Amino acid sequence: MRDVDTALSEIARIRDQLAASTRFEGFTPGIAAATGLLALALAGLQSAGVDPSATMVEMLVQWALLALVCALLIGADAVVRARRLHHAMAETMIGTTLRQFLPMGGAGAILATVLLLRAPGWAAILPGLWQLLIAVGLFAALPILPRSLAWGAGWYLVAGTASLAIGAGAPDISPWIMGVPFGVGQMLIAALLLVAKRDATHG
Q1: pTM for the whole thing?
Q2: For residues 65 and 47, what is the distance between their CA atoms, to the nearest angstrom?
Q3: Cβ contacts of residue 192 below 8 Å, gap of 6+?
Q4: Chain-wide mean pLDDT for the chain?
Q5: pLDDT of residue 102
Q6: Domain range for residue 27?
Q7: Which of 154-167 are b and which e, b meaning 16 or more Cβ less than 10 Å from the residue's Cβ?
Q8: What whole-number distance in Å separates Cα of residue 180 and Cα of residue 169?
Q9: DSSP of 26-57, one letter per residue?
């Protein structure tokens, strides 16, 4: 029985190593582009003053809700696509990818909760912090993603730094400090995924 347990543990370890060294094919250009369009749409609505009485905190709550919706869209699409493309390795690949991105998502949620509830005067730095967290998550996941996504991570790093500098000490923020970095960032990621897919197909 002990030999069987040892063999099963060794198989699980090998599967984890394979998953960590195999490119994850679950992310699609279409969903990435759609989330970018949603970000630009929300920024446009907020900029147009659809709800003139909305405070900065309320605007950021709307962005947090949009981030949750986008994460669910990306996650659901990734799970379906991974199961179709990775077959027996799908669950292991999904688990490996989640371990790369969940800490980023958890940290973003904690930052939002603490700042919005306990320190709303500092809420203007949230956009920059969120963008930097996305950059960190993408850089961490590069071993299982197309290498070209480093450009997307770099965009979020630069945009996050700029947004953080603009938001620090600001009494208010423009909706476009969220809309432009996320909209352009997701469109860039969609383009990079599309190019990587074509290269893999023709390679």
Answers
A1: 0.84
A2: 17
A3: 146, 148, 149, 151, 152
A4: 84
A5: 86
A6: 2-202
A7: ebbbebbebbbebb
A8: 21
A9: ---HHHHHHHHHHHHHHHHHHHTTSSTT--HH
In this structure, which amino acid lies at residue 138? Answer: L
Q: How far apart are CA 94 and CA 184, in angstroms?
A: 26
Q: What are phi and psi of 50, to 5 degrees?
A: -55, -35
* Per-residue model confidence as pLDDT tens digits over 62-83: 999 999 999 999 988 888 887 7
The structural domain count of the chain equals 1
Task: For residue 60, give the amino acid letter.
Answer: L
pLDDT above 90 covers a percentage of the chain that reads: 49
pLDDT of 91-147, one tens digit each?
777 777 778 888 898 999 999 999 999 988 899 999 999 999 999 999 998 888 889
Nearest to 122 by CA among 161, 173, 159, 175: 173
Query: Tokens 């980023």 sit at which residue?
Result: 104
Backbone φ and ψ of 129, nearest 5°: -65, -45
Q: Phi, psi at residue 194, to the nearest 5°?
A: -65, -45
